[in-house]
Amino acid sequence: MSKDRAQLKATALAVLRGIAPEVDPGDIEPAIPLRQQVDLDSMDWLNFLIGLHQRLGVDIPEADYARLVTLDNVLDYLQARLP
Amino acid sequence: MIDFKLPSLGADMDQGKLLQWHVKPGDSVKRGQVIAVVDTSKAAVDVECWDDGTVHQLVVQPGETVPVGTVLATLLAPGEAAPAAAQAPAAQGTTGPAPAGPTTAGPATIAAVAAATRPPVSPSARKRAQELGLAVEALQGTGAQGAVTLADVEAAAAQGAVAATPADRAQAMRRAIAAAMSRSKREIPHYYLSESIPMAHALAWLQQRNEGQAITERILPAVLQLKAVALALQRVPQLNGFYRQDQFDMSGAVHAGVAIALRGGGLVAPALHDVQAKPLAQLMRELADLVQRARAGSLRSSEMSDPTITVTNLGDQGAESVFGVIYPPQVALVGFGTVAPRPWVVDGEVRALPLLTASLAADHRVTDGHQGALFLAALRELLQTPEQLETT
């Protein structure tokens, strides 16, 4: 994992912990759907994406929500669009 | 020597947790004075002393959970000398007679259940208390009308007030929910209806509406549902209000109690006010704020006391439908399941369409299935024309 990606992952997990404080970042499997691992309702999920948008400045159109399922999906998506 | 015992504070209480002492050995106390705070699992309760006297020894320490009837402290009666070995100061020559009559023969304590009249707590104080793990109900407020302020919380923390563990709070909340739901099932003759609602048009409309909007301005389907409930209630207002003292008080305004699951268990259903009168964008902002504050434990008293109906949405994790338990004194609960493609007949042909199952639990003391069915029909119709939910 490149340094950038590791940093990105740390940011994403920090945002996630802001919403779900009970999460242990070490327990998140990056290839398994996030919402299978963490109890997130649609408001939580929206807040997760808003948090990523605000921290990283990446626009996430609603049409792209369906592609963001696992942590890897999220990191791939962000990495491709970082300003 | 007078024993100050843990009183029973209700038929369902067999033990209590001492949260805080308001007195220390050597303090003189008067009959009726609040000297301890005890958590009964439903609420923190101020416990009063039933005798005049002087505190001799605090037997139970804050944080301990003990059965009803346990001696919490011993008091010296007026004029009584401390036992020779005791460190406590002797009673200061008080010579008055011991309280006469049934008080001395009766229980050593009486309790004041103060939940209904508890002083207000400022949102910042509640949030800080939760961060610190303090039971905010047990704190002494110094603000206006005895309100507990941020400074009170910080002061209590500095003095090492007892923290309630998350497990304690979860268990207490579980019991409080059980008590309210038991009452509901005991007192309210529920009836249940459900209706499948095609959502293709509403979702397409919402998608178009959200397109091009900044992520912070986008609206969730839950907001459409809340607004549709509020407008449907304008047509069938007999489902919106309170049943109290054997009569129904209808409410014109729809204060939707939004069921919010708390992380770590339990739920609250605080009110989103005047849903019928607010545009979708405003409802979305207010819902996001309400959810955030509900989870931070900083709800306002009005939000807890005045929901006129409850709306619960269990569709996020895949429940197809929900048949809820009405939250007294309300008379109805609307439940939404998950929106998912299901077979649906259009023009004599079966097609896969996104469907939503809406359900109604309502109170037979106020309405019959006929009104309930009218409500669900109105709800379905409103969700077919999402344009009219936007501003009206």
Q: What is the element layout, followed by pairings?
A:
The complex is a heterodimer of chains A (83) and B (392).
Chain A: H1 3-19, H2 34-37, H3 42-56, H4 71-81
Helix pairs in contact in A: 1-3, 1-4
Chain B: E1 2-5, E2 15-21, E3 28-29, E4 34-39, E5 44-49, E6 53-58, E7 65-67, E8 71-76, H1 102-105, E9 109-112, H2 123-132, H3 150-158, H4 166-187, E10 190-198, H5 200-210, H6 221-235, E11 241-244, E12 247-250, E13 256-258, E14 260-261, E15 267-268, E16 271-272, H7 280-296, H8 301-305, E17 309-313, E18 332-336, E19 340-346, E20 349-363, H9 369-384, H10 387-390
Parallel strand pairs in B: 13-17, 17-18
Antiparallel strand pairs in B: 1-8, 2-4, 2-7, 3-6, 4-5, 5-9, 6-8, 10-20, 11-12, 13-16, 14-15, 18-20, 19-20
Helix pairs in contact in B: 2-3, 6-9
Structural account:
The complex is a heterodimer of chains A (83) and B (392). Chain A has one domain: ACP-like (Non-ribosomal Peptide Synthetase Peptidyl Carrier Protein, Chain A). In chain A, α1 crosses α3 and α1 packs across α4. The mean pLDDT of chain A is 91. With 83 residues, chain A is mainly α. Chain A is globular. Chain A has helices spanning 3-19, 34-37, 42-56, 71-81. Chain A is built from four helices and no strands. With 392 residues, chain B is an alpha+beta fold. Chain B folds into two domains: 2-118, OB fold (Dihydrolipoamide Acetyltransferase, E2P), CATH 2.40.50; 189-390, Chloramphenicol acetyltransferase-like domain (Chloramphenicol Acetyltransferase). In chain B, 29% of the residues lie in helices and 26% in strands. Chain B has helices at residues 102-105, 123-132, 150-158, 166-187, 200-210, 221-235, 280-296, 301-305, 369-384, 387-390; strands at residues 2-5, 15-21, 28-29, 34-39, 44-49, 53-58, 65-67, 71-76, 109-112, 190-198, 241-244, 247-250, 256-258, 260-261, 267-268, 271-272, 309-313, 332-336, 340-346, 349-363. In chain B, strands 10, 13, 16, 17, 18, 19 and 20 form a seven-stranded mixed β-sheet that branches. In chain B, β4 and β5 form a beta hairpin. In chain B, α2 packs parallel to α3 and α6 (221-235) crosses α9. Chain B is elongated. The termini of chain B are far apart. Chain A binds chain B through residues 20-22, 39, 41-43, 46-47, 49-50, 53, 59-63, and chain B through 207, 210-211, 215-216, 218, 220-222, 261, 263-264, 287-288, 291, 316-317.
